[in-house]
Design goal:
Its EC number is 2.4.2.-. By secondary structure, the protein is an alpha+beta fold. The protein is built from 8 helices and 16 strands.
Length: 342
């Protein structure tokens, strides 16, 4: 009953109306496999490898360019072979495309632009079913859609690791975007690594959504910089920016984690030389939210008004023209890129 109720709640409205008698009970013919009948439609939910499915079509949740090469999408493209890998990015932007399945046992692959919003996922599912009906397909297999909604689509496959660093290719769009923001490093940047930490990222995204609701606006995030020592890198990559380190390099505006607007400020004042003469600095996503003037001794932002529970989200050196921000929540900043330079 629970399964039937949830499926009915998320099923998009259809012109065809099923009477209650056409819905069967949810049956489990084997461990981990659940099946129910809805008129002539059989719905089966199971765990397994979608690349092993033998059906008319399988669904690949990809990106807007249909070239996502990570997670389930990577497994599907690897299994399908180079002909499908080369074909899918050549299509004009659209909500979904269909290709052959290449070397996979299924006949076709429906590539969709993955969505995070439940409403948009419903529309996508309905669109795929309509496409299958138009092509007179008898079966289609979907992966679990939206289960990695909080992970960026450009992340590389982590192979079940919780934390992993991926060096960016010099000259790539992603590399140039990071290096371009920190132009002070252009001439002496040795390496830029993308920090992929699923737990930190998901916690950060949940807080970001909370601030959007609390503050009633979406301008809560800024890209800022944090210089540090080589000995702190592993801890930051795994645990994020820890407030307990406040005071090691100054706490003029509060006992929190400090981030600079200008990368040169972090690079020159806080990035420490290691034995090889290298320095390290993070480009971080920071939820500054609504901010106010900071002062020495603060351990939390002050209240916005007389309500002690309604606090500012961060503090700064100059509210009208900030050059640095201080946050007091360990999940309020995400160490997105580690820049090594001289």
């Amino acid at each position: 009953q629970c399964f039937s109720r949830e499926f009915s709640r998320f099923l998009p409205p259809l012109k065809l109306v099923f009477v209650p008698e056409t819905f069967s009970q949810v049956l489990s013919s084997s461990l981990g496999v659940y099946r129910m009948q809805m008129g002539q439609l059989t719905l089966e939910v199971s765990s397994g490898d979608i690349t092993k499915e033998t059906c008319d079509a399988i669904v690949n949740s990809s990106n807007a360019n249909f070239d996502l090469y990570a997670g389930v999408s990577k497994a599907i493209l690897d299994g399908a072979g180079r002909s499908v890998q080369m074909a899918s990015p050549g299509y004009l932007p659209r909500a979904m495309i269909m290709t052959t399945a290449g070397q996979l046992p299924s006949s076709n692959i429906v590539h969709i632009v993955g969505q995070n919003d439940p409403g948009k996922i419903k529309d996508l599912v309905f669109g795929v079913l309509k496409l299958c009906e138009e092509n007179k397909f008898g079966s289609v297999a979907f992966p679990a859609l939206g289960t990695e909604a909080l992970l960026p689509p450009h992340w590389d496959d982590m192979k079940n690791d919780i934390v992993k660093l991926f060096p960016l290719t010099p000259g790539s769009t992603e590399y140039n975007n990071v290096d371009g923001k920190g132009k002070v490093l252009c001439s002496n940047c040795l390496q830029i690594e993308r920090v992929q930490n699923t737990t930190l990222w998901q916690s950060y995204q949940l807080l970001k959504k909370h601030l959007e609701v609390k503050n009633k606006h979406t301008k809560n995030e800024q890209l800022l910089y944090h210089g540090t020592a080589a000995t702190s890198i592993d801890l930051i990559n795994h645990k994020g920016f820890n407030r307990s380190y406040a005071g090691q390099h100054g706490a003029m505006y509060g006992k929190g984690s400090y981030f600079a607007v200008n990368p040169s400020y972090s690079a020159q004042n806080y990035a420490q030389l290691d034995a090889s003469g290298h320095k390290r600095m993070y480009q971080a996503r920071v939820l500054v939210g609504d901010y106010t003037q900071g002062r020495s001794g603060m351990i939390t932002p002050p209240a916005k008004s007389g309500n002690a529970a309604d606090l500012y989200d961060s503090v700064t050196d100059r509210p009208n023209n900030p050059s640095m921000f201080v946050v007091f929540n360990d999940i309020q900043a995400y160490p997105e890129y580690l820049i090594t330079f001289t």
